[in-house]
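Re: beginner question about structure tokens

> Can someone show what the tokenized structure looks like for a real chain? I only ever see the sequence side.

Sure, here's an example I had lying around. Input first:
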Amino acid sequence: MKRGSTVSLFLAIASVLGLGGCKLERNDIASEGSSQQVVSGSQGGDMTALVEGIWESQVVPHLRQTATDMKDLAAAIGTDLDSAGEASGYRPSSEGSPWNFAVQVHGVIVSAKTDTRAATADVDVNGDGAADVTLQLGPVIRGTALRDILPFVDFSSFTDQIEFAQLSRSLNTRAYETVLKDLPRDALAGQTVDAIGAFTERGKGPPYLVTPVSMKVGGQ
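And the corresponding structure tokens:
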């Protein structure tokens, strides 16, 4: 993530967007007094145990602290992905890495697909009736967004690609077990939803595939 002036980045995006009342805010990681520790693997390391150790202390707090409102972010991405990424996203330093975003999702579920292990719920966040976000419900969770949104996790700190991939799977499994497993799945369409999660954007546009680390449906 580039560490330029927050103010100048916001002004630049605001001038491009020209969206009245739309406020895209950058949520920086606290650099002083931060409890975040660089996460590293080890030969034959237990990724499940590693994730268990950092989930409540680092992963969930990081997403809560850096999440951007999805309605504003979707508008910004639609105008200029790189500007939105520089303002509110994160990507590893390796060349060609896609932008990852931590987001707050507030909206209405317009449809849900729960008759599959890769269950999802489509959410409208701007009131136009169309899906802006697809929330993953699992138990099969696709993608590596939960791993790739974390600045304290870097490939060079792990033994190899296999271990790094195992870390991603363990993060996805943890999200399902602690957040999604016990969610009600009947009659989801029409209910309100509040969630915090992450997604990776490669320029394909909405609906954005979000993996939640917290989620509430209706009056839950």
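Each token stands for a local structural state, so reading them left to right follows the chain. The helical segments are 6-17, 47-66, 70-79, 81-88, 145-148, 161-180.
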